[in-house]
Amino acid sequence: MNRNPHVAVVGATGAVGIEMIKTLEKRNFPLGKLTLLASARSVGKKLKYRGQDITVQELKKDSFGGIDIALFSAGGSISKEYAPIAAQAGCVVIDNSSAFRMDDNVPLVIPEVNAADVKWHKGIIANPNCTTAIALMALYPLHAAFNCTRIFASSYQAVSGTGAKAIAELERQVDQIVNKQPVTREVYPHQIAFNVLPHVDSFLPTGYTKEEMKMENEGRKIMHHPTFRASVTCVRVPVYRAHSVAVSAEFEKPTTVEAALAVLQKAPGLDVVDNPAKCEYPLPLYQSDKYNCAVGRLRKDCALDNGLCFWVAGDQLLKGAALNAVQIAEELLK
Q1: CATH of 132-316, one of 3.30.2000.10, 3.30.360.10, 1.10.230.10, 3.30.450.20
Q2: What is the pLDDT of residues 265-313, one digit of tens each?
Q3: In what order do the strands lie in the sheet with 92-95?
Q4: 243 noted as active-site residue
């Protein structure tokens, strides 16, 4: 890999694409050249990188000549079509969609958990689901110490996980309600303002949604833990940014709150915010724009024989997407 790689961001004008550009800049990623690619309707837009305007170009089949690393965040269908073309052109693709996550030939990586898996890539590396990434930042260190057998979890997912249109929908609905106007909706099947929707992604025949099964399926692959089980309910909440997850985890080895806190305090990319007496616990409002996830409300689970409950929150546009992708790119340069 070139020490000062030529990097492309595919889907550069989307919510995650913009965060990818900011993250490359903030982390002083040693790129030699930055190319911004998007669909025809975004061509000619200018985005700032290190104080310079970079013009967005149209994503085409011949866009990848000379590019070393391509960060994709343009949706699954674009990834399926263009990631293999980019890989064929000698580019390493880091893909934020779900297109390749469960492909046996593609590493699925959270650098704090399984960075070594980057080494066996064949041109494409997958970024995990945002809720899974945030939950595993707290769960994996505990699993490594105590062997997690299963979890029960509920997510509290921000509207920015759906994209820029969903952020606008929540803002618009709040205005409509405050001004006593009829509430209009386009993105979600129901009003999201002052409401919660137990519906993230599409439903499967089992009654779970695809999003809910990602925690088990992706968790098994990332943690190298084929028997891991996760029963999850994913809920969209009227929060602009940062997802939270309430987790009850069962372990094989005996656990105590003290031992678990000691493990979590050493975990990379994770802050422990756990002082209920002072009303200190992770909040999505305070995790927005932060690279680290936060864990708190740690306690013995009173319904499981050997369990711990905790609450974890993180910025899903960062650790759940853009930051994780840039961290994978950093691993490629090591």
Answers
A1: 3.30.360.10
A2: 999 999 999 999 999 999 999 999 999 999 999 999 999 999 999 999 9
A3: 57-58, 33-38, 6-10, 69-72, 92-95, 124-126
A4: yes
- Contacts of 104-107 with CB under 8 Å at 24 or more apart are none
- Identify residue 128 by its one-letter amino acid code: P
Please name the residues in contact with 99: beta carbons below 8 A apart, sequence gap of 6 or more: 76, 77, 79, 80, 83, 126
**Beta-bridge partners for 72:** 10, 95
Report the distance separating Cα 101 and Cα 96, nearest Å: 9
C-alpha span between 151 and 225 (Å, rounded): 13
pLDDT level of residue 164 (50, 70, 90 thresholds): confident
* Residue of 6, 121, 143, 243 marked active site: 243
Where in the chain are the domains? Answer: 6-128+321-333, 132-316
Single-letter amino acid code for the residue at 309: C
Q: Which structure tokens are listed for 318?
A: 């960062």
Helices (H), 224-270: 257-266
CA distances from 35 to 62, 150, 193, 233, 323 (A): 13, 43, 37, 39, 18
What pLDDT, in 10s, does the model give residues 28-74? 999 999 999 999 999 999 999 999 999 999 999 999 999 999 999 99
Pick the CATH number of 6-128+321-333 from 3.40.50.1100, 3.40.50.300, 3.30.1490.190, 3.40.50.720: 3.40.50.720
Catalytic residue among 130, 148, 234, 309: 130
Residue 121 annotated among the catalytic residues of the structure: no
